[in-house]
Specification:
Elements (H helix, E strand, L loop, with lengths): L4 E4 L4 E6 L5 E6 L10 E3 L2 E6 L5 E6 L4 E5 L10 E3 L2 E5 L5 E4 L6 E6 L12 E3 L2 E5 L4 E6 L5 E7 L9 E3 L2 E5 L4 E5 L1
Antiparallel strand pairs: 1-2, 2-3, 4-5, 5-6, 6-7, 8-9, 9-10, 10-11, 12-13, 13-14, 14-15, 16-17, 17-18
Length: 184
């Protein structure tokens, strides 16, 4: 939802609807890929992404004009994140790319985490940090900003396929057999 518009990601078309009436406002060609990711809002642009079989990221104005395209760096399932004015793309194998969401230009590209991993969970952000949770149960903590800096890794001993949830002073992590609450 972007103000009074509902914008949908699609293989064939990306469509904006009036949120009150359901009337179609505009459409542009879709991502020509599996449209799994949630659309993101970055200022006055909608960010549309897909990651399989083609890797696609688009910046689209709220009036429906595609202003940039970037065609690498996305994952099949995890939705990218916009945080503190930057767009972060994560691949299925944990490669992190940071773009300027206004222009689609890379701030940094193809940065690796300290251990190989597979990712299904979407990144989350809090307190100037990105949290990237792997299927192995490792959560990598990356400093948000224009330089790629991994500042920590936390591990649990069971698989994780869902994104962290943030509520109040706590992070919640749903693993294969347990729900964890982590407080500062």
């Amino acid at each position: 939802l972007a103000g009074d518009r509902l914008i949908t990601n699609g293989n064939e078309f990306i469509v904006a609807y009036d949120a009150k009436t359901g009337k179609e406002l505009w459409s542009v060609p879709g991502v020509d890929s599996n449209a799994i990711h949630t659309p993101l809002l970055a200022g006055d642009l909608v960010i549309i992404t897909a990651g399989f079989p083609k890797k696609r990221s688009y910046g689209i104005t709220l009036s429906g004009k595609v202003v940039w395209k970037y065609e690498k760096g996305t994952a099949y399932v995890p939705t990218p994140i916009v945080y503190r004015g930057l767009l972060y793309l994560l691949t299925d194998s944990g490669i992190l790319t940071c773009l300027d969401p206004k222009t689609g230009q890379p701030v940094y590209e193809g940065k690796r985490l300290p251990a190989p991993a597979r990712f299904t969970a979407s990144p989350v952000a809090f307190d100037g940090k990105l949290f990237l949770t792997s299927e192995d149960g490792d959560t990598f903590v990356v400093k948000a900003g224009p330089e790629h800096t991994v500042i920590g890794k936390n591990t649990i001993d069971e698989p994780v396929y869902s994104s962290l949830a943030i509520a109040g002073d706590s992070l919640y992590l749903r693993a294969e057999k347990h729900l964890y609450r982590i407080r500062n």
